[in-house]
Predict the structure.
Amino acid sequence: MVKVVKIWKGDLMMRSKSLAKKKDLQRKVLCSLLAAGVMSVCISGGDVWAQPTTTVQYGGEKVEGGYRVIYVPLTKTDTLTVTDNGAYGVTTVQDRTITIDYGGNPGTANPAVQARADQNMAAYPVLNIFTQGDLTVSGKQTAVSGQDGAVNLSSSTGDITLSTNFTSSANLPVNKTTAQHLSNEAYSTIYARNLYSKDKVAGAVTVSGKNVNILTAEQTMTGIGMENVKYGTAISGNGNGSVDIHATDVVVIRGAIESLNTFMQNKGTTGIKINVNQAAADTAKVTMEGLFINAADKSEVNIKGAAGSSITADLLASATTSVLGSGGKINVDFTDGGSIKGAVNAQNGGLVSVKGAEINGAIKVDGIDSEYHGTDTALTTVTADLSTYTGSEKGAVIVTNSGNAVFDGKQTLITVDADHAGKVFGVILDKGKAEFNADTTVINVNNTNAIGTWDYAVDVKADSQAVFNGKDVSIKAVKTDYTSQTFTVRDRSTADFNNSGTTIIEANSNASVTALDVKNGGIMNVNSDILAIKSEILGGKEAAINAIGIQIHSEDGHSQSTQLNITDKVNDFSIDVKGQGYDYDGTSYSSGTAALNASNQATATIESKKFTANVVFNDETASSDNNHNVMAGLWAADAGKIVASKATDTVVNVTKTGPSAAKAYAVWSTGKNSDISLLGNTTITATGKTASNALLAEDGGQITVGSEGKTVDLTGEVKVDGGSVSNHGNVTINGQLLVKADGASSEYTSTGENLRINAGSDSAVQIENSSLQNVSNVLDFNAKNTELSSSGSNYISAVNILNNNQPDVTASNTVNFSGDTTKITATATDGKAQGVRIGESNFGSGKLTTDINFGATNTSINVKGNVVAGDYYDQVAGIWEGEGSYKGDVATKIAFNGKANIDVYSQGGNAYGIFVEHGSEIGTTIIDFNDNTVINAQNANGSGEAVYISGDGVAVNFNKAQKKGVMVDIIGDITAANNAKITLAGDSNVVKGTVTADAGGIVLAGSDKATYIVNKFVTKDSVSRFTTVTRGTITVSGGTLNIDNLSDINKFDLADNSLIVTGKGVLKAASDKVFEADTSGKKVIAGVDQKVLFNGGKLAISDTSYTLADSKVYSEALGKVDDSGVGANTKTTIVMTGTLQDQPVDNKATVDDLAPTGAVHTNVTGTVSTGTLNVGDSSSSGGTTGINNDLGVKDLDFSSTSGSGTVDASVTISNDTGLTLVGDGSSELLKGTGSNNTVTVGSTSDSGSAGTLTLGNAAAESSGGTLNANVTLQSDSQMTVEAGSFTVDKITATEGTVAVNAGANLTTTQDFTVGDAINNKTGTIDAAGSITAGKVDLQQGTVAVTGSLTANELSVGTSNKEGTVNAAGTVDVGILNLNKGNVEVTGSLTAETLTVGDSDAKIAVGAADSAGTLTAEDVKLGGASLMLDPAWEDGSTIQTASKAGLKFNGSQIDGKLTVGQNSVLSLGTADTAKAEAAFTDTGLTWGQNDITAALYIDYEQTMDSTKGGIKVDGSLTHVSDSKDLAAANTATFAAGSLLMVAGDAALTMDGALKAGGTATITISNGSAATLKVDSGAKLYIADAQADKQYTIVSGFTNSGSDVTDGGWNGTNLLLNKLVKGSGSYSSGSFTVSTQKVKASTALPGVALPNILDAMSSQTDSPYAGIKYLSNAISGLNSNAQTLVAVNSFAQGAENSGATRTGALAALDLGTAVQEHLSLVKAAEEQSGGFGKAAVDTADNGSIWAQYIHNKDKVDNMGGVSYDGQYNGIVVGGDFADRGKYSSGIAFSYGSGDSTGSASKNEFDFWGLSYYGGIQNGDTNLIFDVGYSKTSSDVKGVIKAEPDTQVISMGVKGEKLISNGHGTSYVPYAGLRYMNIDTDSYNGSIDGKTAAHYSTDKADLWLLPVGISISHESVTAGGWKVRPTADIAYVWTLGDKNTAMDITVPGVNATDRLGYDIMDSGFFVGKLGLEAEKGDWTYGLGYACQKGSHAQNSKFMLNVTYSF
């Protein structure tokens, strides 16, 4: 049989020889030509052909039809078969084994096996070679080739070996790499190509066998430069061919794998697929060794290997072109374990994927779409393996130019162990991205080379991103002799740690460490559960450079925002730094030492639950080189910011115990705008040697620690030096607060619950001011309670102010205390102590002021010391000021605005409440006490000096403002020396000591009812240390001083004319104590005349009765006293307070008789005989009564004029005389008169003189009444309400002044006219007291209100005359018409209607020194201007800002409204509280550096195009240029402004603010209206809803408007947490479109996602639940706070454990009855012990009781934590036993409370139980059935009153084991069932239902197993004593976790919340002791229950009486 094989004539693919071989299995098939054309399949032979003979017949060259014909005789056909399918081009060769060894034709490159087509064919050639055994193919060049054809090699059971023997001696060209040279020169063992065929299978080689070997010659390349290339190319290809290798045992590849054979294809791209072990049945181990694996263009190399597989080659996935989307893929799957030794590169869009391999080399990803994807990567890189980044900088993983590296799997390990002189990187990203998604990621870099370069474990360079997912991440860098910088994020790059577990970033070096560096616009976000940053100078030594945990900063030229964000998903964030860095010196040489350093506008935001920073250096042997001194914990510099949220508990510890210059700065902020805010619970400790600063803010730095409700504990000094510090919450400072202004101003503020400063022997507060610049120190102590404490041996001062001001400098100190209490304590055991000490020195012409304002409700200063009495230089004082050399303007002011208590005690002497001494220097010290005051100064031997002040300008004032009801109580002496002055002005002034005016002044200046009780008054001349002063005085200018004892030197030791009465002062005495008889009648007693200087005021004669003659002679006598020579220039008025002796019935006298007395008769009615009374004109005629003196009476009676009728009285007061009408408190002052009475004050003629009308008298017992007349004031005249309350019919103050003194009241029932516009006359109202009027018509003049003014109408000015209203007090009017003039509000002004008639009129709200409030309902401004502007003050908030609330008529804004600094304007509402509430919801901060001005729009408004304008700009003040204020038809919102809009207002057609409207027309296009919005302007939409479009403004022009990017948008657009949005300005309108944010997305873990999603936010909703939840999700709260607020609401009564409490009460009842019947109590009785025998108790019964005190602590049980306690009693009675059966009933009752995070539950409970037991010898079975009910009263977030009912059934079995010696063991087991049912209930807020809670019933099973041990003994006294111990474990089964449904009225949604009742199991331990004697048994016990989340402790007392 002959097989004809046809060969294409032109084909030279084979050469034959007729040779015989010895084995049939080694037959070689020569060649088969499948079809005509260019398609061929070739099996090339070597020297041997088929056996026995292959005959080639062609006779030279035989050609048949153009083909060479070869005949292959197959005479033996048992195994070898060759089949052809010419139609489909398939040749199949099969044999048991096949060996093909082809040497090739000379000069040709023929493969040993090949299927080839060289053009596109309908069918492509296929060659199949199948064997059962081994298949071996070798060739001189290529062994197997599929070129647009397919070769399939398969061995079912044997091995396949493919090899090439090719070698090359070509040298390496200088411009090529070894890989390029190998690719260009070497033949590959397998070659596949598909260039022509459209079918993807064409150009394929498939190899399948048990073991597959693909081999190249060792040392394939022998040329120069290729010596290290061991193997050639094993697999290569071109085009879209494919190579598939399949094996079950082993695949061995010796040679490179190349997707683009440049020898065969030198241009174009490739898409070949090379697959090794890719089928599911491929289980072989792969061993590959070659120069490289290359996948180019769209080609793929896929290798899968079993455990132990290895690749020794470089991996390169790349592309021959940089076209996007190109790039080959290499996939290595060694999931079961394997290794790669070589570099891994993906570039130009290439992808390398490696699974499970240990890689020894480096990974580099470069180019767009390039990617490395590693699964379970273990990369180990040594020095030689490092990949070059640039120059000498090398790395293990390099990702650049938009490349991406992804690490997945269970673990990623990147280890670098290098000794490299350049920089070494573990991972470097440069415009690249890396994702680390493995469960565990570990990156370790160690470089032992000592060359001075940084090393980086991870460096995220420009425009890159690193993402860490998975679970745990550990990154560490170790460096020798230079900086180890572990993780760096730079230049607009981000690093995101989203892993769920622990992140550790660690740096170690013996020279310099920085664990984390974020810089130049880099951003790092951390969401890990735990973040640990560790930096260590190895050995804890001094560093050559840095010792930094984290630094974030921007270098010069970088303006991007650098951020570190630690989110609220982080539970624990810690930084640990060990070692000391080289101090920062202002250069880049070193960053110093810090846990966290933020600088150059970088921001660190920390929201983790816990944040800890530790910096420690404990090397006592370190040298003091002045370069390693400062260590910081948190450090912000140069506008850097560090913010830890309110939900973050922060702990900072800095300990430096090294050299003597050691300085520890725990929290340090330095440089302008640097800011550190730690808002949660905070503990800070600083321990150094020369400095231990818990907080240090300097050179403009700011620090805020704590917030409302948080606890702050600071150990170390708090120092402010040119910066600011704020403390909030419950704050303790264990160290000094030092505030100093050397080069810049300093501020300190505290708010919250408590501030406690315990400074030891240092001053608790020290304030220093020593500067060459104009600076200030401002301290605001605003905490509810402030305590400042210092104690030591000597020189102790709690508050120490040290001022050393320099020439020509203005400097100041301001210290403000507010809150409930301020307590200052100073204690010195062996020396002097002062509570507040002020030492001041001022040089040159500078100005220095110190203001201390004690504004707390109660202030106490307690000082104890021990100094020698009489030692002039040492004092123990509450307030002390002295020493110094004052040469400039120095002023100290101290004010106590609350109750004050100063208590000073000296164990020796020199105790002073207040000690102030000025010498000859110029300066003032003023101390004001404005409320109840107690000063107690005591020495060991008695009273000290309560007040001692000396020097010009020194004054102490007690209630100088005459506040009502103030009491001054002083124990100790008072001395004013050397021109100093002390003022006593309380209503009650008691001094238990001596009041001395020692060449100084004592002023008694109380209100009209003030009294003075003093042990003794002394005045004298005195010689001070510096100046001789001649006179001391006591001046009575207010209140009443009784001088009955004036002659007693032990009461009044007075120098001549040293007791002065003046002003409103009253001296009170019996007449015989002042006057004595003389020849002319009476005279002033000489002693009185000598001591008293009468200079105005009043002398009240206290005689109960007197005669007119008496009063006259008293006046005459007093008038004879001439004190003009010693300064008297005002008459003192005699006031007679008794009754007339000669008119005992009606106490009346004629005015003619009364006037000459010159006295005021407070109880006498003056009768007038005519209808007209002229005071000041003595001429009388038929109808007129005239008197030429002052007249003072209780009232006037005109009834005698008309008999029984009435008369219209007329009273005129002129010629500088006065009429005083005292009144009796209620009656009319003009009696017997008609309804048309008149009182004219002053002459009606132009030449006439003035008069005075006085209502009330300070000396009278009571004042007040009705002046039933119309009162008119003329020029220069005055009407004064001195005391009491008066009503006047009508007042016309054409000219002159109407004054109402403080404490007095004036009411007019008709008009009150001020000024006369027609006659150009000006009047004045001065309301220090209260005025109530119908209409106040201010035509021309001024109304000044410091008290109050209430009127139906207030008209200001006329059409041509101006009026001015100064509302510094309270003004409340119905109508305010501002016709012309100005209104200035620095108090409050409220008007129902406000109309302005003059466009030039101005309304000012606020001034430089105070804020004001204006509210009006119906407003028409008519184009006038309104300006709001108070100056900023320390601690300014929106509540203290100037504010206005205006409802414009028709919502038409027709005025120019300027909202300046520290101001807020509300439009559409007069309720300013709405704006304050909206601002609170924003969560923003009000202040000079935050929000400076705000506008709130409650209802849609239209801005008048000609008269209306708005400008909100916090930089503007009253002194700003008018051109900078609001202009018509313009709305401006500057940086720092806030526009707040009610959501409903912005949903209207034209939006919240429409431009272009006028009073008569509407301009449709608003073409002239311009809108200006700065990029820093903020917008808040209150109650914003999702999926809405809000129109903020409309009708403005586009061309002239300027809405800057960022303004009202991005971070400057505020909504709520469940709504997001964006704003845009178009067509004159600014609109905001909103979208819903799912509650579960915005607030992961929120308990009410369905309700929040369905709810429309409305912070003023009528539904209480919606209102509460809307406020909770507002910007006011952080995410953590919102979660707490919402979840606490959702928990309802379970927030404080209502259901668990009911269950515990029921459980205690069941436990008590079971223990009562337990064998433990009767163990010894049953076992023959000492107890009462069973026969003694059988059938008799007993009663028993148990008291229980229970404490329950729950920690995060189902999200709930609370502390609870209750007290209860169980009372039971046992029935008589029936055989073995015992039974009884028990009743329980108790009450208690439990406190959760947001509620407190006060509950009562009761229960009833039936119990029984069957005791059979040493076994016992007990059961009980019970019912209990617990009634809860929950108050907190919600108020609720749920009831919990429990049905309980329990059974317990016991076994008694006794040792026969009194000790018994009772093991037991039990089961208890509890049905727990908490009724559905409503939760209310403010009386309105907020939520409904529907709870599930719970079926709970408890399974206790335990053992009790007891021992019984008997005492000598017959007492049986039984101690017991019990231990058990209780399993909880069933519904230990239950749930409830929650609904909220107004919301159509339900949420379900689960909560826990019991732990899943818990231990119970008990100890007890019982004592029995006779029928009585007493016991006590303690039990402790401990589970995973709950701990319960019980104390029990028992008593039993057995019948």
About this structure: Residues 1-81, 1558-1567, 1723-1738 have pLDDT under 50 and may be disordered. The chain has twelve helices and 162 strands. Residues 1783 and 1812 are 4 Å apart (CA to CA).
